[in-house]
Design brief:
Layout: E1 2-4, H1 11-19, H2 33-46, E2 50-55, E3 60-65, E4 89-95, H3 103-112, E5 116-122, E6 128-136, E7 146-151, H4 161-179, E8 188-194, H5 199-215, E9 219-226, H6 239-251, E10 256-259, H7 265-274, E11 278-281, H8 282-293, H9 297-311, H10 320-326, H11 336-373, E12 378-383, H12 389-397, E13 414-420, E14 424-430, H13 442-445, H14 447-454, E15 458-464, H15 470-483, E16 491-496, H16 503-513, E17 516-517, H17 527-537
Parallel strand pairs: 1-3, 4-5, 8-9, 8-10, 10-11, 12-14, 12-15, 15-16, 16-17
Antiparallel strand pairs: 2-3, 2-4, 5-6, 6-7, 13-14
Helix pairs in contact: 5-8, 8-9, 9-11
The protein binds guanosine-5'-triphosphate and magnesium ion.
Family: Belongs to the TRAFAC class OBG-HflX-like GTPase superfamily. HflX GTPase family.
Coiled coil: 336-370
Subcellular location: Cytoplasm
């Protein structure tokens, strides 16, 4: 098959182009002189650029017809990149005016990780003229991506291609090993934030994204912030800037781009059309973490449901963006019919999961009714993720709920009893943490957690006072509580991690917010909190 604009060509010309597929070069040769002659002759005859994609064995894999200024290289994602990051394919094309490589040529070289990008000039009589070629460079302090060479005449070119590529690959691998450990199985990500907010707001949100990435076991290589005048609806950021980022990401051997902003289905499509890198947005990253952490059946069903609902409108023919989250679903490159089947399968699965959830909800209701009959006051610990909720629950009730320096360490609710003197008891529940820009539908998906909160007589809103953004976090939690219609439940603000904050500051903050200070790591600090709880639930009893 000939790629590109074959309209207007005679069938004899198409046949001549098709015959190019049968030509071979030796692995040492950039291009045999025979083939160079045929290619340039045909190009002059058609007055169009012609291109060949040739593999390391010297076989022609694609023949491309362009116009008089450019060719469009077809999708090469079927050819995997090797250890060095090169694709094992070179692009050789004609330039009718013997012009040097264009910016687009160099961008294609880098975006597609080609072995070489070569332009052969075509003389007026159709003979090969000059030759320009470029190859990629390993990461370097100057930030240069490519190296260009030229010879006055194609036939002067003396290049042992096999030795040249071997040396290039060795060099790429060697420099790479100095900066990253290729045996590390973790995904390597570049974080991107594109927005019109203040730089500080973008940076704060991005550092949270970094924590989210760490919690998802992703290695972060680099981050990019862009504050454009106008947001590009197609790529979110400018197309040129995005290409630049992708090229740098490929040079650093990233496997993943993570956007701090949520991408529309169309944006996911355009961005994944530009690169084979996996593309995730903030919501997907959070969903991914949730998927790793859900342990109970309830949690698993709810996360899968939220994931499928997020993915359904975003499925593209290419599917690469979702392979990480969805495993088999939406695999690479299905045709339109396959895609329809996948969509139908997903819809069916969503229906089945929703039924399952209803069953689970009934079972939960029975459990809750049993507990309510015990008639003990219920206190729910809520708060921003990583605030120390689980640590506090553990310390208060001397239990062992998983607490970790990870975002969303807790997904499943845990319920414990807290005993006070004179046989008084409270039920304390730990809940999933909140976060800014919570993915749409995800909170709703955590109905189990929500129901626990609805039953609560008191919400302990735990705040990480040591976090520089604690005030924004308080606001975010309050906003989510209001959205969930939980603002009606009495709340007690608890400022945690005071061991990390200067005492005068703690005192001032507690006064300003009417909060109770604790350090979940130091049970000695619990007296004021316990006293408040006692007063609230058993006001008449002496403490
Ligand atoms: N220094 C200090 N660290 C604390 C304190 N409380 C909790 N931490 C640490 O903060 C991190 C998060 O604690 P968790 O209890 O897992 O927080 P969480 O609110 O349950 O977090 P998620 O379940 O992920 O939403 C852990 O590394 C704790 O050891 C504290 O009072 N002081
Ligand atoms: Mg927790």
């Amino acid at each position: 098959m000939i790629h590109g604009q074959t309209g207007g060509l005679k069938s004899s010309q198409i046949k001549a182009l098709e015959r190019l597929y049968q030509r071979r070069c030796s692995p040492q040769q950039l291009l045999s002189s025979d083939l160079a002659h045929s290619l340039c002759g045909l190009s002059r005859e058609l007055n169009r650029q012609l291109g060949l994609i040739i593999d390391r064995g010297g076989a022609v894999r694609h023949v491309i017809v362009g116009d008089d200024r450019q060719i469009l290289i077809p999708d090469l994602s079927g050819f995997a990149t090797g250890r060095s990051g090169l694709r094992g394919l070179r692009c050789i094309h004609t330039h009718l005016r013997d012009e040097p490589l264009s910016d687009d040529d160099l961008t294609d070289l880098a975006l597609l990780r080609l072995d070489l990008m070569v332009a052969i000039g075509v003389a007026a009589d159709g003979a090969p003229a000059g030759c320009h070629y470029a190859h990629l460079l390993p990461p370097n302090p100057q930030g240069r991506q490519v190296e260009q060479q030229q010879v006055r005449h194609f036939f002067q070119l003396q290049l042992d291609l096999r030795a040249f590529l071997q040396a290039l690959e060795d060099e790429l691998e060697r420099t790479l090993q100095q900066s990253i450990d290729l045996s590390d199985p973790r995904e390597r990500a570049i974080l991107l934030s594109v927005g019109k907010g203040s730089l500080k707001a973008l940076e704060d949100s991005l550092s949270e994204l970094r924590e989210l990435a760490r919690s998802a076991d992703v290695l972060v290589l680099d981050q990019v912030i862009q504050r454009p005048q106008r947001l590009n609806p197609r790529f979110l950021m400018g197309e040129g800037k995005l290409k630049e980022v992708v090229i740098r990401a490929l040079q650093q051997r990233a496997t993943l781009l993570i956007f701090d902003q949520d991408l529309s289905p169309n944006q996911v499509r355009s961005i994944t059309a530009l690169t084979d890198l996996k593309v995730l947005d903030r919501s997907q990253l959070i969903l991914d973490i949730f998927a790793r952490r859900a342990h109970t059946l309830d949690g698993k069903v709810q996360v899968e449901l939220a994931q499928l609902k997020y993915i359904l409108p975003r499925l593209t023919g290419k599917g690469t963006a979702f392979s990480r989250l969805m495993g088999g679903i939406g695999g690479r490159g299905p045709g339109e019919t396959k895609l329809e089947i996948d969509r139908r399968r997903i819809r069916e699965r969503i229906a089945r999961l929703e039924q399952r959830l209803q069953q689970l909800a009934r079972q939960r209701l029975q459990r809750r009714q049993k507990r309510q009959r015990a008639d003990l006051p219920i206190v729910s610990i809520v708060g921003y993720t990583n605030a120390g909720k689980s640590t506090l629950l553990n310390a208060l009730t001397r239990s062992a709920v998983r607490a970790e320096d990870l975002l969303f360490a807790t997904l499943d609710t845990a319920t414990r009893r807290l005993r006070f003197p004179s046989e008084r008891e409270l039920i304390v529940t730990d809940t999933v943490g909140f976060i800014r820009q919570l993915p749409e539908g995800l909170m709703g998906a955590f109905r189990a957690t929500l129901e626990e909160m609805e039953d609560a007589d008191l919400l302990l809103h735990v705040v990480d006072l040591a976090n520089p953004c604690f005030e924004e976090q308080i606001l975010a939690v309050e906003q989510i509580l209001a959205e969930l219609d939980l603002a009606r439940i009495p709340r007690l603000l608890v400022f945690n991690k005071i061991d990390l904050v200067a005492p005068v500051e703690v005192a001032a903050c507690c006064r300003r917010y009417g909060a109770v200070p604790v350090s979940a790591c130091e049970p000695d600090s619990f007296a004021p909190l316990l006293q408040q709880l006692q007063q609230r639930f058993w006001p008449t009893a002496a403490s």
